[in-house]
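Write out this protein's structure.
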Amino acid sequence: MSFHDAGTSIAITLAVVKTLILLVGSLITFLAFKAYRRTRQRALRLLAVGFGLVTLGLVLAGLLYEILGVSLMTGILLESLLMLAGFVIIAYSLYVT
């Protein structure tokens, strides 16, 4: 296997993994939002928002780099900021009663 072939297979694997993360993260976000709509509990709404931001953050860097031509470092920074915000909101949702 050449260097180029290895890079291509890793890129394909990464795309598959990121797609699965998007699907599973979207499902978790949807289920949390559905629970919020049923119960109207603020904590569940915050949980849905937090998981939505984490999911968006996990796929954002690659999308910005591949589609919009943003530098990879800038994409990773934006990804990390969204993930941080999402985790802060998730932690807050677990703290709020």
